[in-house]
UniProtKB/TrEMBL annotation, chain A:
This is Iron uptake system EfeUOB, component EfeO/EfeM. Residues 146-372 form the Imelysin-like domain. It is found in: Periplasm. Keywords: Membrane, Signal, Transmembrane, Transmembrane helix. It comes from Paracoccus laeviglucosivorans. InterPro entries: EfeM/EfeO_iron_uptake (IPR050894), EfeO_Cupredoxin (IPR028096), Imelysin-like (IPR018976), Imelysin-like_EfeO/Algp7 (IPR034981), Imelysin_sf (IPR038352), Iron_uptake_EfeM/EfeO (IPR053377). Its main location: periplasm. The chain crosses the membrane at residues 7-29. GO terms for cellular component: periplasmic space. The keyword Membrane applies.
Automatic annotation (TrEMBL), chain B:
Belongs to the EfeM/EfeO family. The keyword Signal applies. Residues 35-266 form the Imelysin-like domain. The keyword Transferase does not apply. Gene3D superfamilies: M75 peptidase, HXXE motif. It is found in: Cell envelope. This is Iron uptake system component EfeO.
Amino acid sequence: MTTPSKGIYLAILGAAALAVAGGAAFWYASQQKPQTVADQLVIVDAATCQPATITIPGGRRSFEIVNASDRPIEWEILDGVMVVAERENIAPGFRATLQVALQPGEYDITCGLLSNPRGKLTVTASDEATAAASEVTLRKFLGPLSEYRVYLVMQGNAAVKCAQTLRDAIAAGDLDAARDAWRQARLPYRRIEPLAYRISDLKNAIDPSAAYLAGREDDPAFTGYHRIEYGLFSQNSTDGLQPVADKLLTDLEQLAARLKALPLDPALLTALPGDMTSQLAQARVPQGENPYAGNDLQDFAASLEGIAKLSGLLRQVVASVDPGLDQGIAQDLQAAQDGVAALQSKHRSYGDVPPAARQALATDLTNLADSLGKLQPVIGIN
Amino acid sequence: MVGKYLKTTALALALGGWAGMAGAADPSLDLVGPLSDYKIYVAENTGKLVEDVTAFTAAVKAGELDKAKSLFAPTRTSYEKIEPIAELFSDLDSSIDARADDFEKAEQDPEFTGFHRIEYGLWHEGSTDGLGEYADKLLADVQTLNDRINALTFPPEVVVGGAAVLMEEVAATKISGEEDRYSRTDLWDFDANFEGAEKIYTLLRPMVAADAEFTSKVDGNFKAVADVLSKYRTPEGGFVSYEELTDTDRNVLSAKVNTLAEDLATLRGKLGLG
């Protein structure tokens, strides 16, 4: 065994020097008020942020966070309980930068330990923030389009599941259970109808009305929901309905698969709620749609849920572009929902709802359709 | 220590500084499919989380110590898989998953609640005594989380950036074994974090498949991680104690996870969401 070489000593010396330099860097970072090229410097020490109150103009802003405490931290900008942006795992003595697009408003900032008091971030109006808010981009539609596809998949699956329950009740010859199952089975279909009714081959098998068929109830093309409704509520029997229920289930399975595979785009999403609302206002509310079961109001409420889902997603896009239209849609939607709820509290069957009351509801829906129709010129992109 | 911090901070700088400027392309409508499939994945996991936490907290409240301990790690996995979304809600992330050292008085801090508070009771104190209120709160919190997530339109950049965020967290604050310090069930969490990151990557992979060099590198690193973790699986489908992880394997995991974090951090730029 030889004695340790000079090289080893040099290496140890070098390592020691590095350790001292590291310590010095740590000390420097924690003691100095460092310069920054970011829009805002924030130093987080053991107890608080410095500064703890920040005012900055809206737009794309950069923050440089210096961790002057003795433990790793994360730094967050919060809007209520929601994290707007965060930079995680900043080690003691180190700094990290965070870029975030900020709209005017009041935000909280976290400052180290969860038990430390939070700081305040006030974002003021600016030309840059106004321009970013009013700009309509494909990126702003990505979230809403994705969320609508989730809704289509979930409600499409629910429609299939409900149709299974209906078929089982019919197969068991249980009239009361089948009637309950039928009422429930309509709801998920009505929620996704704004898109489902555009798939015309399936729509004609799933949802035809006898009124539009040459042979009315005896027409061989009278299939789907309303054929089953006719059997259960007009003929008061489950007899002969099993093949119809089997076919409805198959058609709904196909519908769910087709909706899942259908490409969505901003123009389509923007058009869907207004078109559906117009249909309700012009035809279904004045005439009624479930002539044998008479539970049209329950269906209308489900339709409005589907319209509310779409409107809510589009309002996320329009809110910053045209706040007035955003509010108008919210108010008109509420009025239509209140209108349906008021009639539901008074009438058991839609057949008892007088023409004047139907007209009043149709007017509420026309107002909503008009507001939704303004979306295309305001946020329409191709 | 300094070396570890240097590494993670360099990483944080890379993520914050460069990813934001690398907007190579505008986002494509092709993202709608992966983004919505990811939400469905998350929704399935929060549904499972509510189900599992219901059973876990029932065991805690019934004083069934062994059963509660056996349910702790598997119950956490559905939370760990979806952390990029779950941690968007700062109040729930704190009350469900904060560690003792996030609080001034550590384990004795009245604000210390959630999984790790119960873990502390079950393992460190060896008892279910006094855990009832934490169990009730945890169940209420995961139910609220499930409701909020179902109602949330997922921000595209959070989903796409989520794969790197998961890996960065493992690298910075988990590989060291500080997450499940009382139960030593950290390997369950790692596995769930990797699955959550790989899910995002797999959904987005067709959109970046033209860059074969990138995908083969990331594929290889995920495989390497899976190979290491598979050595520590138990026949029952779980994992052995974190203490059995060898230094060699910890170093392999650490290296792979850092590389994955760096590579996955480029997804936002590649997909026009920088």
